Amino acid sequence: MSLNSFLFITFFLVFFFIYWILPRSSRNGWLLLANAGFCSLWDWRLLFLLATSITVDYFIGLKIGSLNVQGNKAKPVRKKLLIVSLSTQLLMLGFFKYFNFFSESLSYFLSRLSIPISPLHLSLILPVGISFYTFKTMTYTLDIYYRRLDPTRSFVAYACYVSFFPAFLSGPIDRAKSLLPQILSERVLLRENILEGAHLIFLGLFKKIFVADNLAPSVQHLFSLAHPNGWEVLLGAVLFYFQLYADFSGYTDIATGCARCLGFRLTLNFNLPYLARNPVDFWQRWHVSLSTWLRDYLFLPLGGAFRTPIIAYRNLAITMLLAGLWHGPLLTFFLWGGYFAVLLIGYRILQPGLKRWGRTVRRFLRKGFCRSVKILMTFLLISLGWVIFRAGSWSTLKTMARGLLHWPAGPSPTIILKLCLFAGPLIILEVLEKSVLEGSIYRTNRLSFWAKTVVYAILFYLWAFNGASAQSFIYAQF
Amino acid sequence: MKATLRLTAAGLLFIALLEICARIDDGIKWRAPFLGLYSVNNLFDFDDEGIPINIPNSSFEKWSNNNIGLRGPTISRNKPPDRMRIVCLGTSETYGTCESQGQEWPAQLGRMLKEVGPFEIINAAGPGFGFQYYRRFFEKYILPLNPDAVLILANPFFHASRYIRASRIVNSLRPQIRNPNRQRRTPRPSLISHLRILPKIKRSLRQILPAHLKRMYYVYNFKKQIARKERLLHSAELPLDAVPESCLSVYRDELRGLLDYLKGKGMQVILGSYPSLMNNDNIDQYPEIFLGFRAISIEFSFWGDMDIAKKYNEATRSLAQQMNLLFVDTEEAVPKDLFHFCDNVHFTNVGAQAVARAFSEAICQLYQLRCR
Question: ipTM for the complex?
Answer without folding.
Answer: 0.80
